[in-house]
């Protein structure tokens, strides 16, 4: 059996329980050696940059995932500065982990926009896409290797940010350690 790593990119602004549940399901059902969380510097398909600092987003991920041997956090995309393109990230991982098979984890909302991604066909030759319903199940795209992650959550980082901004509880939406970091750094105020 070949070694497999699942790459999970996103803003993680902030990391919440939905991100965790998707990653856990990927690890349980698809059995990669690890799931690597890759917070982006800037999503090319979003107008605005992440609201929390890079340091806070990384700290939230590391705090929320502490103790999980299968979960890793990489700051590679953040260190590249500017727009984060998945193809660049995948080619980097192919270079540092030769012979490893890669999966790319994403929601069906992003899957529906895949044709707008930089070099998406080349990306599709390099990875298998693991797509979770957000909110709808993904539809196959000709020439792209895709499997559906059978988990759905109705939670968004924007909802978490909105609740923090209004002083409402986020209990059950984010891990307690992530909430402590957000409160301490006064992020999303």
Q: What distance lies between the first and last C-alpha atoms, to the nearest angstrom?
A: 48 Å
Secondary-structure element pattern, one letter each: EHEHEHHEHHEEHH
Range of strand content? 15-25%
Helix-and-strand structural type: alpha/beta
Task: Tell me the name of the CATH class.
Answer: Alpha Beta
Helix content: 25-40%
As laid out across the biggest beta sheet, the strand order is: 3-2-1-4-5-6
How does the major sheet shape up?
Answer: 6 strands, parallel
Rg is: 16 Å
CATH homologous superfamily?
HUPs
**Poorly predicted tracts of residues:** none
Assigned CATH architecture: 3-Layer(aba) Sandwich
> Count of helices?
8
| Strand tally | 6
Average per-residue pLDDT, rounded, comes to 96
Q: What oligomeric assembly is this protein in?
A: single chain
For this structure, the CATH topology is Rossmann fold
Shape: globular
Task: Describe this protein's structure.
With 189 residues, the chain is α/β, with parallel strands linked by helices. It has one domain: HUPs (Rossmann fold). It is 38% helix and 17% strand. It has helices spanning 17-30, 54-65, 76-80, 86-96, 108-111, 120-126, 157-165, 176-185; strands spanning 4-10, 34-39, 71-73, 101-107, 127-132, 146-148. The chain has a 6-stranded parallel sheet, sandwiched between helices. α2 packs antiparallel against α8 (176-185) and α4 packs parallel to α6. The longest helix is centred in the first third of the chain and has 14 residues, at 17-30. The mean pLDDT is 96.
List the keywords.
189 residues; alpha/beta; Rossmann fold; 6-stranded parallel beta sheet; 6 strands
């Amino acid at each position: 059996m070949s070694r497999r790593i699942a790459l999970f990119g996103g803003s993680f602004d902030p990391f919440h329980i939905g991100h965790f549940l998707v990653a856990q399901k990927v690890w349980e059902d698809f059995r990669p050696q690890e799931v690597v969380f890759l917070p982006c510097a800037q999503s090319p398909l979003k107008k605005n940059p992440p609201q929390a600092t890079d340091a806070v987003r990384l700290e939230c991920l590391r705090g929320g995932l502490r103790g999980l041997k299968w979960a890793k956090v990489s700051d590679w995309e953040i260190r590249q500065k500017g727009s984060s393109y998945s193809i660049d990230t995948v080619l980097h991982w192919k270079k540092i982990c030769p012979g490893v098979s890669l999966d790319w984890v994403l929601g069906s909302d992003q899957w529906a926009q895949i044709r707008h991604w930089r070099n998406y066909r080349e990306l599709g030759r390099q990875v298998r896409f693991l797509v979770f319903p957000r909110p709808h199940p993904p539809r196959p795209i000709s020439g792209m290797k895709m499997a559906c992650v059978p988990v759905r959550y109705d939670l968004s980082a924007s909802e978490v940010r909105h609740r923090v901004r209004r002083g409402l509880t986020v209990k059950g939406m984010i891990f307690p350690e992530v909430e402590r970091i957000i409160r301490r750094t006064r992020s999303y105020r």
